[in-house]
C-alpha cells in the first residue's frame, strides 16, 4: 500500500461519508414526505401475493417488456445496478490495495464471469438507452415523442453514471489482469482478458480506476440525495415499493373498478360524512393517499403513458406523465409547509399554524406553493382542461412499468371539483340532472325502456309482468342499459342480441322500466354521490330479482362495456354479487356449443375496435374476435389493438362533453380503422358504436371514406350469418368425356 493508494483511498472514503450522509438524509426526508399522504390500509397484504408480483415484475421485467425494444436494455442496466453494486462496493478495498477482492468469491471464476457480464451489460444497456432517447427526442417528432416534457439533463446524468460504473467494473478487472494481479480463464473474462493484454501493467491504474468507479456512484448519491424529485434516479429504489403496494394484491393493474372514495383510510360513508373533517376526493395535494405520493415520487418520466394517451395524441393538453410530475413537484415544494404543521380550512384560512409569525422558519417558496390551487386556470397546479380531457381509458395505467395509478388520481381530483367546488364542464349539468331525475343520461322516460322490442316477431319476457318472481327456467337477466334502450344505433345491438338468444333458446328476462343507469358516467365524471344513489338503487332491484337464487345462479348478460364493468367490478362493494358476462362472451359460447350455427359466411372485410372498458379494463379480447371469425368475415386488425387499442373518446363521461381542443379522438380512431380498408367496423360497446359512427359519417361527408362503410356490433355480424339463407352454389359445367376412339385433335 503506497502513498498514492492511501491518498486516493482516504479521498474516496471522505467523499463517501459525505455522500452517504446526504443520501440517507434524503431517504429519511422522502419517507417523511410520502407519509404526509392520507392513510390507506388496503395496501398491507397479503404479503405472499404481493411479494410474488414484485419478484415477477422486476426479475422478468414483465411490464417493462411491453416496449420490447427497451425492455432488454433496461433489464441489463437493472441487474447491473443490483448485483453490480457488490463490484462497486469492492472499490473501497481496491483503492487502498490493488490486490483486494471479496473473500471466497472474489477469485471464483463464475463470479468473474458474472461481473464481466454485468459490466458489459451495463455499458451496452446504458448506451442503448441513450440512443433510444435520442431517436425519440421531441425535436424529431414534436408531440409524438414520449419524452416530450421529460427532464433530459437528469436522464442523461443517470445514464452517464450507469455507463461509467460499467466501464469502471470492466476497467478495474482489465488493469488487474494487465498488472498480473489476476489471471482468470478466458471464458470468465472474455472482454477484460484480451483488453488486459494490451494495457500497461500498472497497479496505480487499478487504484485510479477503482476510485473513478467509486466516485461515479458517490456523485450520484450526492446529487440524488439533494434532488428528491429526480424520479428517473429514485425509481431505482421506490419502484420496488410502488410495485409491492399496487392497488390489486393479485398483481392486476389499477383498472376495472375505480378506487372507492376514501377518507382517513376508510371508504367514505355519505350518510355520516362531515365536510369539515372528511376528505372528498382530492382538492389539495395532501388529500392524496401516501400511495399517491409514492406514485408521484416513482415516476421515471419514461413517457410510455403519454405515448398511449388518446388525449395527448390528438392535441389535448393532457399528458398522464406531466400530470404525475406536476403533482410531484408541487407536493415536494409544499412539503416543508405541511411538515411544519400547516393546514388550511375549506375557506382557505390557515388553521394549522398559529402565533404572531406562524410561517417563521418555513421556506417562502413552500408558503407560496401552499396557496396554489390544485386545479385552476390561473396559477393552478393543473389546468382544468387537463383534468377534463381524460377518457379514463386506462392506456396510461396499462403501460406504466412502475404501476402508477393515473386514472384513480384523476377521478379523485374530479370528485372534489364536482362535489365540493361545483366546478365542472357545463355540459355535465344536463347529464347529472337527467341521471338524477330520469335514471338515464338522455333524460328519456322509464316507460320507454322497452320501445326497442316493439316490432320483434317474438315476445321479450319482462320481469314482474306475469309474476313477481323470476321464472325458474330463466338463465340470464338481460341488462339492456341506457344506450341499448334509448339510442337508435345501440337499439340495433339490443335487438340483435335478443334475437340471437331467442334463436339459441336461452331463457332470459329484462327489467324494462325497473332498470336504471348503472352510474358509470356519474362516477367517472366525479359525481360519486350520484353514482352511489344509482348503484344502491340498482343493487336493491337486482337483489330482489335474484332473491331466491344462490350466488352462482345470479347471472346477468350485458351489451354495454361500461355497464359490464360497473356491475361486475363495482357493485360487489355495495352488496351486489352477480355473475356478469358480456354479450360477446355468451354468444361465442353459444356458437361453440352449436346452439347458434352460422349458415352463410359474410362477404365483408371487417376490422374490430376494442372498447377500453371491455378490453383493457376487463381483458376480454378473444371472444369478439372469434365471433367475427365465426360470421365468416375477413378479419383485418388495426395497428393499435388489444391492450394498446386506441380509445373511441366516449369514456370518462366524455360522451356528454364537447371536444373543443385538437383533433377529435373518434376521428383519429376512425382514420386508423379506415386504413385497414374495411367494409364494416365492428365493436362490442354502444358508446364506441356511437362515436365511431359519427366519425365515419364525418369522413364520408369529407369524401375520405366509402359511403358503404358502416359501424356494427359483432352481434349483428353473427345474426346475419345465422339468419341468412345459404347461397346456392351453381354446379360446375361438366364437359362430356370424349369417346375412347375419338381423335383428341378433333374435339372442339
Strand order of the largest sheet: 4-3-5-6
Number of strands: 10
For the termini, the CA-CA separation is 106 Å
Low-confidence stretches: 736-748
| Main pleated sheet | 4 strands, parallel
**Proportion in helices:** 40-55%
Specify Rg, calculated over alpha carbons.
Answer: 32 Å
| Tally of helical runs | 29
Shape: globular
What number is the mean pLDDT?
Answer: 92
Q: Determine the structural class based on helices, strands and strand pairing.
A: mainly alpha
**Binned strand content:** under 5%
What's the structural blueprint in terms of helices and strands?
Layout: H1 3-34, H2 47-59, H3 71-82, H4 84-89, H5 91-96, H6 109-135, H7 138-141, H8 152-178, H9 192-196, H10 203-225, H11 231-244, E1 262-263, E2 266-267, H12 290-298, H13 304-308, H14 320-339, H15 364-370, H16 384-388, H17 395-399, H18 406-419, H19 427-438, E3 476-479, H20 482-486, H21 488-503, E4 508-510, H22 520-524, H23 528-545, E5 555-558, H24 561-570, E6 579-582, H25 583-592, E7 605-608, H26 622-630, E8 634-636, H27 665-674, E9 680-683, H28 686-701, E10 710-713, H29 714-723
Parallel strand pairs: 3-4, 3-5, 5-6, 7-8, 7-9, 9-10
Antiparallel strand pairs: 1-2
Helix pairs in contact: 1-10, 2-11, 3-6, 6-8, 8-10, 11-12, 12-14, 14-15, 21-29, 25-26, 26-29, 27-28
Amino acid at each position: 500500500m503506497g502513498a498514492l493508494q492511501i491518498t486516493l483511498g482516504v479521498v474516496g472514503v471522505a467523499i463517501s461519508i459525505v455522500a452517504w450522509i446526504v443520501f440517507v438524509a434524503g431517504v429519511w426526508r422522502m419517507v417523511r414526505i410520502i407519509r404526509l399522504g392520507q392513510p390507506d390500509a388496503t395496501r398491507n397484504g397479503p404479503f405472499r401475493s404481493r411479494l410474488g408480483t414484485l419478484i415477477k415484475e422486476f426479475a422478468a421485467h414483465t411490464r417493462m417488456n411491453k416496449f420490447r425494444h427497451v425492455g432488454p436494455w433496461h433489464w441489463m442496466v437493472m441487474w447491473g445496478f443490483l448485483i453490480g453494486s457488490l463490484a462497486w462496493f469492492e472499490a473501497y478495498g481496491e483503492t487502498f490495495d490493488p490486490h483486494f477482492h471479496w473473500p471466497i468469491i472474489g477469485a471464483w471464476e463464475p463470479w468473474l464471469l458474472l461481473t464481466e457480464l454485468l459490466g458489459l451489460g451495463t455499458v451496452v444497456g446504458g448506451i442503448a438507452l441513450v440512443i433510444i432517447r435520442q431517436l425519440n427526442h421531441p425535436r424529431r417528432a414534436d408531440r409524438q415523442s414520449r419524452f416530450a416534457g421529460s427532464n433530459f439533463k437528469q436522464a442523461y446524468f443517470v445514464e452517464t453514471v450507469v455507463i461509467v460504473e460499467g466501464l469502471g467494473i470492466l476497467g478495474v478487472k482489465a488493469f488487474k489482469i494487465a498488472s498480473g494481479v489476476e489471471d482468470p480463464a478466458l471464458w470468465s473474462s472474455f472482454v477484460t482478458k484480451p483488453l488486459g493484454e494490451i494495457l500497461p501493467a500498472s497497479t496505480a491504474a487499478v487504484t485510479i480506476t477503482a476510485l473513478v468507479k467509486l466516485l461515479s456512484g458517490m456523485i450520484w448519491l450526492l446529487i440524488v440525495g439533494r434532488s428528491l424529485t429526480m424520479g428517473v434516479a429514485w425509481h431505482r429504489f421506490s419502484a420496488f415499493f410502488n410495485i409491492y403496494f399496487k392497488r390489486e394484491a393479485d398483481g392486476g393493474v389499477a383498472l376495472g373498478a375505480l378506487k372507492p372514495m376514501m377518507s382517513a383510510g376508510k371508504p367514505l360513508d355519505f350518510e355520516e360524512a362531515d365536510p369539515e373533517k372528511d376528505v372528498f376526493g382530492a382538492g389539495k395535494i395532501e388529500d392524496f393517499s401516501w400511495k399517491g405520493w409514492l406514485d408521484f415520487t416513482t415516476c421515471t418520466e419514461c413517457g410510455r403513458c403519454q405515448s398511449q394517451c388518446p388525449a395527448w395524441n390528438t392535441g389535448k393538453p393532457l399528458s398522464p406523465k406531466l400530470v404525475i410530475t406536476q403533482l410531484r413537484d408541487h407536493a415536494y415544494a409544499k412539503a416543508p409547509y405541511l411538515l411544519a404543521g400547516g393546514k388550511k380550512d375549506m375557506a382557505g384560512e390557515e388553521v394549522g399554524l398559529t402565533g404572531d409569525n406562524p410561517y417563521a422558519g418555513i421556506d417562502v417558496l413552500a408558503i407560496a406553493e401552499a396557496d396554489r390551487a390544485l386545479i385552476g386556470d390561473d396559477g393552478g397546479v393543473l389546468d382544468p382542461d387537463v383534468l377534463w380531457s381524460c377518457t379514463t381509458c386506462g392506456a396510461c395505467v396499462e403501460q406504466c412499468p412502475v404501476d402508477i395509478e393515473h386514472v384513480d388520481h384523476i377521478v379523485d381530483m374530479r370528485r372534489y371539483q364536482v362535489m365540493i367546488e361545483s366546478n365542472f364542464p357545463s355540459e355535465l349539468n344536463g347529464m347529472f340532472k337527467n341521471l338524477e331525475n330520469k335514471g338515464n343520461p338522455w333524460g328519456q322516460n322509464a316507460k320507454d325502456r322497452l320501445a326497442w322490442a316493439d316490432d320483434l316477431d317474438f315476445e321479450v319476457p319482462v320481469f314482474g309482468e306475469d309474476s313477481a318472481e323470476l321464472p325458474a327456467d330463466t338463465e340470464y337477466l338481460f341488462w339492456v342499459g341506457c344506450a341499448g334502450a334509448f339510442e337508435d344505433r345501440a337499439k340495433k345491438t339490443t335487438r340483435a342480441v335478443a334475437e340471437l338468444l331467442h334463436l339459441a333458446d336461452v331463457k332470459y328476462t329484462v327489467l324494462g322500466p325497473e332498470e336504471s343507469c348503472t352510474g358509470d358516467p356519474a362516477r367517472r365524471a366525479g359525481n360519486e354521490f350520484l353514482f352511489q344513489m344509482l348503484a344502491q338503487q340498482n343493487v336493491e332491484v337486482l337483489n330482489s330479482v335474484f332473491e331466491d337464487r344462490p350466488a352462482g345462479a345470479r347471472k346477468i348478460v350485458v351489451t354495454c362495456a361500461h355497464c359490464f364493468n360497473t356491475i361486475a367490478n363495482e357493485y360487489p362493494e355495495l352488496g351486489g354479487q352477480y355473475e356478469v358476462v358480456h354479450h360477446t362472451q355468451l354468444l361465442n359460447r353459444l356458437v361453440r356449443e352449436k346452439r347458434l350455427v352460422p349458415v352463410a359466411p359474410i362477404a365483408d372485410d371487417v376490422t374490430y375496435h376494442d372498447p377500453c372498458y371491455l378490453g383493457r379494463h376487463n381483458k376480454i379480447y378473444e371472444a369478439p374476435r372469434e365471433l367475427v371469425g365465426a360470421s365468416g368475415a375477413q378479419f383485418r386488425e388495426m395497428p393499435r389493438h388489444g391492450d394498446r387499442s386506441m380509445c373511441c373518446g366516449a369514456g370518462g363521461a366524455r360522451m356528454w362533453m364537447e371536444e373543443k381542443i385538437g383533433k377529435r379522438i373518434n376521428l383519429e380512431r376512425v382514420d386508423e380503422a379506415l386504413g385497414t380498408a374495411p367494409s364494416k367496423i365492428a365493436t362490442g360497446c354502444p358508446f364506441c358504436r356511437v362515436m365511431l359512427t359519427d366519425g365515419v359519417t364525418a369522413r364520408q361527408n369529407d369524401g375520405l371514406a366509402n359511403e358503404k362503410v358502416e359501424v356494427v356490433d359483432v352481434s349483428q355480424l353473427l345474426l346475419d350469418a345465422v339468419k341468412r339463407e345459404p347461397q346456392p352454389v351453381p354446379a360446375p359445367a361438366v364437359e362430356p368425356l370424349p369417346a375412347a376412339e375419338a381423335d383428341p385433335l378433333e374435339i372442339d
